[in-house]
Design goal:
Shape of chain A: globular
Distance between the termini of chain B: 139 Å
Number of domains of chain A: 1
Shape of chain B: elongated
CATH class of the largest domain in chain B: Mainly Beta
CATH architecture of the largest domain in chain B: Sandwich
Helix content of chain A: 25-40%
Strand content of chain A: 15-25%
Number of helices of chain B: 2
Largest interface: A-B, 15 and 13 residues
Number of helices of chain A: 6
Helix content of chain B: 40-55%
Largest sheet of chain A: 7 strands, parallel
CATH topology of the largest domain in chain B: Immunoglobulin-like
CATH topology of chain A: Rossmann fold
Structural class of chain A: alpha/beta
Number of strands of chain A: 7
Radius of gyration of chain B: 37 Å
Structural class of chain B: alpha+beta
Number of strands of chain B: 8
Radius of gyration of chain A: 14 Å
Order of helices and strands of chain A: EHEHEEHEHHEHE
Oligomer: heterodimer
Strand content of chain B: 35-45%
Number of domains of chain B: 2
Chain lengths: ~160, ~180
């Protein structure tokens, strides 16, 4: 199992997410930081990619229509970390954790906290044989990227 | 006739004498004594003064009479710690304001006592209790109360976010279980 950081231009971010996540067969724990869960579900449906077993942790909207989505505020990294772990523990089989726009976390948290959070997620994913796929738009906050590059097995640009 | 007049006179004389004797009996002195301590002196500090009133009442009303008054402080064992004696004159009632300086007397429960000796050695007593406390005791209690309040507030500030986080974690866990079970079905 490996962890990957994918850095893409903002304009291509959604397409890249759909292209990569859409072909993964594993159960996905999807942390939506860019668009809310309902929008993301719709985007996946329109793309006609079969995305089954998608569990959303929505950090964009505080509440939604679907009872199958867990809503966590993006400034509550401890709760977000706990929610990811809980999904990881509850779901059987192969799993993939997707963080769809890491830089969004910088709006609500300082970069050290975000780096620590990413480090935690990548570490326990590796220990427990879970894949991590993180997306981030190319950003001026290079400092965050330099801090988190090393946590991932591979960085794709 | 003379005999009757003499008898009437004798009856009148005896009844007059009897009435005088009766009056004399009523006028025998009969005292009571009350010790009163004002509220603010019920608890005093070590070395402070205790103020009290001795109220003497002559229930018999035998006119002005000189009495001996002894008053003082008794400790919890009934031992005299301080005392004074004086002679006072009293007719129907009198009040005397007196004061003791409680220097060198330790913390504890005490009584002001007063004893009056009158006529042929008859005595009457009165008492009222008060306390001597450590002047720092109140301060110590205040320090303890403030420290306890600070501790409770501190514990609240320290524990509240942790308790809230624990509660949120439980909610997240149960939501995740519900979501995963729902999707699996």
């Amino acid at each position: 199992m490996k962890s990957s950081l994918i850095v893409v231009p903002v304009s291509q971010l959604l397409q890249k997410i759909v292209d990569i996540v859409g072909v993964v067969g594993d159960v996905i724990i999807y942390v939506s930081l860019n668009k809310n869960a309902e929008e993301m579900r719709e985007i996946f449906m329109k793309s006609k990619k079969t995305v089954s077993n998608l569990f959303f942790i929505d950090c964009v909207s505080r509440e939604g229509k679907s009872p199958d989505v867990l809503h966590i505020a993006p400034n509550e990294l401890d709760k977000l970390d706990y929610a990811i772990r809980s999904f990881k523990d509850e779901i059987a089989g192969k799993k993939l954790i997707v963080l769809d726009a890491l830089s969004t976390l910088l709006i609500y948290n300082n970069e050290n906290k975000v780096a620590a959070f990413v480090n935690k997620v990548v570490n326990y994913a590796q220990v427990e044989d879970v894949s991590v796929l993180a997306f981030t738009p190319e950003t001026k906050e290079e400092e965050l990227l330099t801090k988190i590059f090393n946590f991932f097995d591979e960085v794709r640009k | 006739m003379r005999v009757v007049v003499v008898l009437v006179l004798l009856v009148m004389v005896f009844s007059f004498v009897g009435a005088r004797e009766l009056t004399e009996v009523e006028k025998v002195a009969l005292f009571d004594i009350f010790v009163e301590i004002p509220d603010e002196y019920h608890v005093v500090g070590v070395g402070e003064n205790v103020l009290f009133t001795l109220r003497l009442v002559n229930l018999g009303g035998a006119g002005r009479i000189d009495v001996f008054l002894e008053y003082g402080v008794l400790d919890a064992d009934g031992d005299v710690v301080l005392n004074k004696r004086e002679a006072v004159a009293i007719e129907t009632q009198a009040s005397f304001l007196r004061e003791f300086r409680l220097e060198g007397i330790p913390v504890g429960d005490y009584e002001i006592y007063a004893r009056m000796v009158y006529a042929d050695g008859k005595t009457v007593d009165g008492r009222h209790s008060f306390k001597i406390r450590d002047p720092e005791e109140g301060w110590n209690i205040m320090v303890w109360i403030i420290a306890s309040i600070v501790l409770i507030i501190g514990a609240g500030i320290f524990l509240y976010p942790r308790i809230k986080f624990m509660r949120d974690k439980m909610r997240i866990k149960s939501d995740v279980k519900r979501i995963v079970k729902g999707v699996e079905r």
